[in-house]
Amino acid sequence: MSRSPVAVVCGDMHLSHRAPSCRADDWYEAMRRTLLELGSVAGGLPILVAGDVFDKYNPPPELINFAIQHMPDNVVAIYGQHDLPYHTTELNKSAYGTLHRAGAIAHLGKPMTGILTGTDAVYGYGWEQPIYRPDKDVEFAVALVHRYVCTPESAYVGAPDAAYVDNLPEELGEYDVVVTGDNHIPFEASFGNATVYNCGSMMIRKSNDKHRPSCGILYDDGSIQRHYFDTTDDVIIKPEVIEVDDSAVREFVESLDDTHEDYESYDFLETLENYARTLDAPRQVLLRGIIEHARND
Description:
This protein is α/β, with parallel strands linked by helices and 297 residues long. It has six helices and twelve strands. It has helices spanning 27-42, 61-70, 95-102, 246-255, 268-278, 283-296; strands spanning 5-10, 47-49, 75-77, 106-107, 112-113, 120-125, 140-146, 177-181, 187-191, 194-198, 214-219, 224-228. The strands form two sheets. The protein has a six-stranded mixed sheet, with helices on one face.
């Protein structure tokens, strides 16, 4: 029996102005490449995003304008906790809300019907939103959920029992497909009647990330085919092979003793990053050196 693609699913874009400390490539270009490929894979089909479009709710205008310009067409999204101002749902105070108002994404506040197979409904459950059963007359029900969900292989040490797939809210077992975001490690599982598909992060953001960034192609029979993004141009730094001389760390720490009258506008991370750049080292390596310096003083 033939099957037809009806959507592309993904999550945890985590678009950010600052490059993750493990990245040594042009970060904006890397984000652009990934969004371009996402749109190419979709080919005009709806793109369902399971939250955390942005890494922070209030990035600078440069990143917001970038997202408006390069977000693929037909994106339907829910918010994750990173998209929310202090984890509140005041979307008018967030970059996510700006994307929605600008028409770059459609926020899945209420169920959308008929956008996949004609007899479907897509339900959105953003961060900490209550979950309900699908309507009984819906033939193909898809839930887009932002919450930490895991399997034994994809869990962090100490993950709560409630996070495991087998302990999901029973309402989700009545859907055909449940697409989850928040856990950056991808996996596929079953729960009740549902196929549970955790997207994983769309880009490498940590040097110890072991997964391949991907999205999924959703078919009308409920199956999902994983598509791996082209990462051949990614440049990832392994910080453990980089050392920073103690004198450089001491010089940076002493520079912090200078008077900063405008404390509200002082950005420690920016200062750290600028200094790390002069050493040709990621800021997390310099930060690790600062911690060691503090311990030894």
